[in-house]
Design a protein that fits this description.
- The structure is a single chain.
- This protein is mainly alpha-helical.
- The chain has one domain: Preprotein translocase SecY subunit (Orthogonal Bundle), CATH 1.10.3370.10.
- The chain has helices spanning 2-22, 32-40, 46-53, 69-84, 86-93, 95-125, 140-168, 173-184, 186-199, 204-225, 237-242, 262-279, 284-292, 298-319, 322-331, 343-377, 386-417, and strands spanning 228-232, 234-235, 251-255, 334-335.
- The strands form two sheets. Strands 1-3 form a two-stranded antiparallel ribbon. Strands 2-4 form a two-stranded antiparallel ribbon.
- The longest helix is centred in the last third of the chain and has 35 residues, at 343-377.
- The radius of gyration is 24 Å and the shape is globular.
Length: 420
């Protein structure tokens, strides 16, 4: 089983390596120098945010410029529809229905990718370099067709990579792809900061302040992510006797952050979809709206704050099913001291989860907005937000847990094979 775990890790690393290779394959017909000049002037706005999630693929105008966000956006829409329409929610719970559910998400991904690709390709036609040269070097109509098919192929490949990592590798594939994209930008950000300090455009004390904010953000995230409320459980004497040779859990752990990293990713995806389309327009009114929504602005951070809280409650209600936990507990002969089994246990668990989600959602909203506001005010020459750190830390912790779980399972199976 040790070899099996090693194989899963190698599969995961192989797909992540392929993802990074795709980030260096540009869309045909694009003048990369013009794109580079444009991004040098837009490192800490909406494009900087999108570029961070794509692993610098947008800066290189790669075939995976849209990243995995169209897939996440389609998944958000389906989750909302499943919560609204009971028939769709039931489809998600059934094995055959889940396959249809995922197929609908894939079709939705295709539609969103095509719409965004058209918007990006149209916007590139209006982009000019420092000398007035166009960002497009071929016929505009041919370029739109090539760009749409290239970006569609890139996004669908990323979606497939994510599914393969989840099924055959270690950890959640989609989260690991976003993780790899964010981490890949760290060396460039460090290099940019060092160059700014050497040139005198950034004070060394400012760099220390930025580092202090980053370290504080990481420590807060680790502290909260490892925090949980443990609900004590008692078992009847009969249940204890039946399971005397087995380990019976004597508490129910409820995490402070029940929804994990999903709310910031969902909120970013929801905001990035209209921003991608708005950035492509040359209309002055549309441009004005795009400027109001740029990261660092009041409107963007306010919307991010509200969306994260909404998605935190929404996803926590899906991830934590108090009724199922109460029924399983009753079936196993367990009960919470002072609380009747069944409906009262479910209500008690839901009340505890709701209170924790209030604090968990506020934590997510604050950690995703405040660090960026502070660092942006200090004049950082790169995009940095609490969302990025949250994703990196949480995905790293989650992947470590899953690797440890795989190792534990391997040890138990080895002991079982030798008869112990």
């Amino acid at each position: 089983m040790g070899n099996a775990l090693t194989q899963k890790i190698l599969i995961t690393l192989g797909f992540l390596f392929a993802y990074r290779v795709l980030a260096y394959i540009p869309i045909p017909g694009v003048d990369l120098e013009v794109i580079k000049h444009f991004f040098d002037q837009n490192t800490n706005n909406a494009l900087g945010l999108a570029n961070m999630f794509s692993g610098n693929a947008i800066r290189r105008m790669s075939i995976i410029s849209l990243g995995i966000m169209p897939y996440i956006t389609a998944a958000i829409v389906m989750e909302l529809l499943a919560a609204t329409f009971p028939a769709l929610g039931q489809m998600k719970k059934e094995r055959d229905g889940m396959q249809k559910y995922m197929q609908i998400i894939r079709y939705g991904t295709i539609f969103i990718t095509v719409v965004q690709a058209i918007g990006v390709s149209m916007g590139l036609q209006a982009m000019k370099g420092a000398g007035g040269q166009s960002a497009i070097m071929i016929d505009p109509t041919h370029f739109v067709i090539l760009a749409v098919f290239s970006m569609l192929a890139g996004t669908m490949l990323l979606m497939w990579f994510g599914e393969q990592i989840t099924q055959k590798g270690v950890g959640n594939g989609i989260s690991l792809i976003i993780f790899a994209g964010i981490v890949s930008g760290i060396p460039a950000a460090i290099g940019t900061t060092i160059a700014a300090v050497n040139s005198g455009t950034m004070n060394f004390l400012v760099v220390l302040a930025i580092l202090a904010i980053m370290v504080a953000t990481i420590l807060v995230i680790i502290y909260v992510e490892l925090g949980e409320r443990r609900i004590p459980i008692s078992y009847s004497r009969k249940t204890i006797m039946q399971n005397q040779h087995k380990r019976v859990m004597n508490y129910i752990p409820i995490r402070v952050n029940l929804s994990g990293v999903i709310p910031p990713i969902f909120a970013s995806a929801v905001l990035m979809f209209p921003l991608t389309l708005l950035q492509a327009s040359t209309n002055k009114w549309v441009t004005m709206v795009a400027d109001l929504l740029h990261p660092g602005g009041f409107l963007f951070n306010a919307l991010m704050f509200i969306l994260i809280i909404f998605f935190a409650f929404f996803y926590a209600s899906i991830a934590f099913n108090a009724k199922d936990i109460a029924e399983n507990l009753k079936r196993q002969g367990g009960f919470i001291p002072g609380v009747r089994p069944g409906e009262q246990t479910a209500a008690f668990l839901m009340d505890v989860a709701s209170k924790l989600t209030v604090w968990g959602s506020l934590y997510l909203a604050i950690i995703s907005t405040v660090p960026f506001i502070l660092i942006n005010a200090l004049g950082a020459s790169f995009y940095f937000g609490g969302t990025a750190v949250l994703i990196v830390v949480q995905v790293a912790l989650d992947t470590m847990r899953k690797i440890e779980a795989q190792r534990t399972m391997a040890q138990y199976e080895t002991l079982g094979n030798v008869g112990l």
